Each structure stands twice: as C-alpha cells, then as structure tokens.
Amino acid sequence: AFFYPNTQASLLEHILVDTHGAHSSGFADAITPCTNYVSGNQSMGRTTAAQWIRVAFHDFVTADVASGTGGLDASIGFETLREENSGSAFNDSFTFFRPYVNPVISTADILALSVVMSVGNCGGAQIPFRAGRIDATGGGAFGVPAPETDIPTTLGFFSGAGFNQVDSIGLTACGHTLGSVHHGGFPTVVGPEAVSSDNLAGGIHFDTTVANFDPLVVHEYLNGTGQRGGPLVTSFNVSSRSDLRLYESDNNLTMIALGEQGTGFLNTCVGLLQRMIETVPKSIVLSDVVTPMEVKPINASLDFDSKGNLFFSGYIRILTPTPSSPPSAPAFLTIASTTPIPLTPEPAQGQSIFGTTAFYPFATKVIDAGSFAHFSVTGHGSHITFPVQTSAFVVPSLTSVSSTSTTILNFTVATRSRVAPTVKVQVPVGQQGTLGPAIKTFDNVAVNNTGRKAGYELWAGSVDVGALATGALSVAILDGEGKEVDVGFF
Ligand code: HEM
C-alpha cells in the first residue's frame, strides 16, 4: 500500500485528523466529550483527557537531560506499581492505547499524541506533533514530585528534565487546568467527603471548568475564586499543598505573569507541553511535524481482482479547513497519463477541529503497470501528484490474519522480478511488566511461488506469531539493501 508522506506520518495523521464521523480512528472517542471517562463508569469522577496529560508528565519528568536518558519513552508502563505513580490513570491509558500501537507507531508516540489531542480537542491550542519515539524496554529512573515533596526536591526533579523554576510553575499550571485530585489514590490530599454516588473516586477539580483547557486555574488561584487553584492549593493537609508551595516559591511572580497573559496562556502551554513531549532519549531523532493533509490518499493499494486483473483502489480524502463549507466541487484522479477519472464522494463526512473531510473512493484497472509511476488528484483548486512504485506489493486480497489462541498470518506478495523476495513481518504483542506492546520481528520469512497474475510472480508465506497480536501487524517487502519497497498493515 502507498502511504503519504510516509507510513508513520500517514497513520498518525489519521489518528490526529480523522476524529469524528466517517472513517474515524476512534481514538478521540475516549475524550469526547472532554468530560468522558473511557475506562469505567461515568460516575467515577475521572476524566480520560486529564489522565492522558498526567501520564505523559509522569513519563517525562524522570528524564535526565544531562545524560540524555528517559523522557517520553513509555517507561511509565513498567512503573505503575511505584508509589509516585499512584492512581488508575497509567493502566487506564495504556489499555486504551494498546490497539493503536503497531510496528511504526510506538506507545510513546501515542502517549505524546494523546497530550496533543487532549489539549487541542478540549479548548487548548494545537501543539505541533513529531513522531519517532522509541519505547523503553523496562522501567526508568524514579523522581516524580508528589503532594508532600518539598520545593528543592520538586525543582530538582524538574531541573533534571530540563525545566527551570518558571517553566515548572507554568507546566504545572498548564497540566492542572484539566482534571482533579481524587480521594481514591490521594486520601491525604482529598478527604472522604468528596466521595458521592456520582463521584465515586472522590475527585475535586483543579478549576471550575474541569474539562476545558483554559487559563481559569490561574485566575481562580490568583483571585481566590471558584476552586482557588484546586486541592493541591487548598488541601486540609498543609503538607499536601504542593501547588501552593510551588506557585509561592517565587512569590507568585510566575502565576501573576501567566494571569496577565490572558488567553496567551494557551500558547505558553503549547510551548511548554511541546518541550515536555519532545524530551526524549538523546539517540532519538524526531520526525518533521505531522500536519493535516488537505489531499490525502488513504488505503491506496494495488491488488488483483477475481479475474486476475491488476487494480489500484483506495480513497482520496479531501480536508476543507472550514467546518461549515464541505467540499462540493468535482475532483478527478489521473493514473499515469490516461484519461482523468471523475471522483464522487461518499455521503458520510468526517468532522474534526481541522475541518470537514470528504472521502472519494476509487478503483481502477491498471493496464500497464510498467508505466504507472504516479497518480494525480485534480480539483478544489489544486493538482497534486503522488509517486507510486509497482515493482512489488503485498496483495491485500490474498493476505489474512486469524487470531484464536495465537495470531496466524497468511500472506501473498507479488513481484515483477522472478527472484524470491525478502519479506519481514512485524507484530505488536503483549509483554511482561507493562500494558505497552513489544514488537516481535520475523526476518526473511520463507515464501513459495504460487503462480503468476497480470505479469507478477506470486509468493505466499505464513507466520505463526506464537502470541496474540495486540494491534495491526505489518508485512514488508525489502530490496537487496534491506530498504522497504512496499508494506501492508493487517
Ligand atoms: C509539583 C508538581 C506536580 C505535582 C505534585 C502533581 C500532583 C498531582 C496529583 C496528586 C494529582 C491527582 C491525581 C489523581 O488523583 O488522579 C494530579 C493530577 C493531575 N496532574 Fe499533576 N502534579 C504536578 C505537576 C503536573 C504537571 C507538570 C502536569 C502536566 C503538564 C500535571 C498534570 C496533571 C493532570 C492533567 C492531572 C489530572 C488527572 C486526572 O484528573 O485524572 N501535573 N497531579
């Protein structure tokens, strides 16, 4: 299949942009509405959007930027039994993230993306998202501040992760605009009186708008109104007032400055939270920013029909930035230099904070694979050309996955060359100690020639994973240098 601009960016862009309606990835359902709690009863008093941000904070803050270790690496998944990681947020989040993790999307990337989406979909500004984080294979350092941690220790933890005092106060205020402190998990901060039939975990909000990423927490703290900064300011237990101690550690100068920013606070949070999610081990090079694509080919793949003809099919997604004006003009698909094919959108559209998406299905016979090196989409004021390669491809209709006691993959790849291809299969599977999957790799999978179709040799193979796949697996055809020629996700 063909992915634009590349496999990883294409799959992550799908989660970021296809949030509601047609072809949604389902990821944003967890935080829709932003008061939602996806991991249990709505009367728990918990909110998923807030949990995701807290999980990322706990993963990040134990980074040691001087030595280039830790940060956003999903090591938090191995650290859930530590006292400093009290609460259900960590396992709740990783359980929800699990099916989205695959050979090109790490748990750490999903965790970073979850912050971007909680903030961006719940009233905050858009945090630029880069991909490429690699998951840790075990727990990392200790060092998450707790409600009773003293100021030098707290600032020491933040400073190890590269955040000075002003940054730390800002980042904490940004984080504490969403969510609550719960009696269940933090009884020394919030007393049992917070528990009620519609607030079973006994959550007390940080500000009056628990599910809005807004500057209110700063103003309520400064003005002594509403939640007055929340339980970590007002706790009955003086030693649990960590936010009060932190905010007062520079005589409230930073909080006053944040208050004076008005809605500019949201941009301050973008800067701080982007730095937080981009704190990664030094060996990692993050990708370019994953941006919403206005014209995006989706599931664009070569395949054979029942008569053995070569077909090219998929969808063109057109994103119109203004949610109120869905695309109406016609669009055309041109393959190589043949006649343009008119495209008709499906009736169902998608909606997101980036605009409205319309999906134009296509399926067209490829007469001469040898001259098919690109296709183009014309319409909506643009003409965009996308490259393709046809030397080899994973055949979707001849590939299947079954999961009973173990996951079994049966695949077919097609090559124009008569030489048996090199095939690599990667599968996300469960691992000990964390709910974040590990990736199991099968190199050089044996293939057998099963005949010819439309000028291609067919090669079949199979893999018994020996475990259950937790998400999509990948089948890749590699060239002589080990470079990926084509990949399919199943
Ligand atoms: C001195 C620093 C900090 C301390 C001591 C602290 C402590 C806490 C505690 C005790 C809770 C309650 C958790 C629960 O009951 O489920 C909490 C919630 C939360 N924290 Fe912090 N925090 C700090 C900084 C931060 C930072 C920097 C962020 C993010 C940038 C953050 C994000 C959150 C969020 C979003 C929640 C709400 C979670 C929910 O509603 O489930 N915190 N924090």
From TrEMBL:
<dbReference type="InterPro" id="IPR002016">
    <property type="entry name" value="Haem_peroxidase"/>
</dbReference>
<keyword id="KW-0732">Signal</keyword>
<feature type="domain" description="Plant heme peroxidase family profile">
    <location>
        <begin position="104"/>
        <end position="281"/>
    </location>
</feature>
<keyword id="KW-0560">Oxidoreductase</keyword>
<dbReference type="InterPro" id="IPR010255">
    <property type="entry name" value="Haem_peroxidase_sf"/>
</dbReference>
<protein>
    <recommendedName>
        <fullName>Peroxidase</fullName>
        <ecNumber>1.11.1.-</ecNumber>
    </recommendedName>
</protein>
<dbReference type="GO" id="GO:0004601">
    <property type="term" value="F:peroxidase activity"/>
</dbReference>
<keyword id="KW-0408">Iron</keyword>
<dbReference type="GO" id="GO:0042744">
    <property type="term" value="P:hydrogen peroxide catabolic process"/>
</dbReference>
<keyword id="KW-0349">Heme</keyword>
<dbReference type="GO" id="GO:0034599">
    <property type="term" value="P:cellular response to oxidative stress"/>
</dbReference>
<keyword id="KW-0479">Metal-binding</keyword>
<dbReference type="GO" id="GO:0046872">
    <property type="term" value="F:metal ion binding"/>
</dbReference>
<dbReference type="GO" id="GO:0020037">
    <property type="term" value="F:heme binding"/>
</dbReference>
<dbReference type="Pfam" id="PF00141">
    <property type="entry name" value="peroxidase"/>
</dbReference>
<dbReference type="GO" id="GO:0000302">
    <property type="term" value="P:response to reactive oxygen species"/>
</dbReference>
<comment type="similarity">
    <text>Belongs to the peroxidase family.</text>
</comment>
<keyword id="KW-0575">Peroxidase</keyword>
<dbReference type="InterPro" id="IPR044831">
    <property type="entry name" value="Ccp1-like"/>
</dbReference>
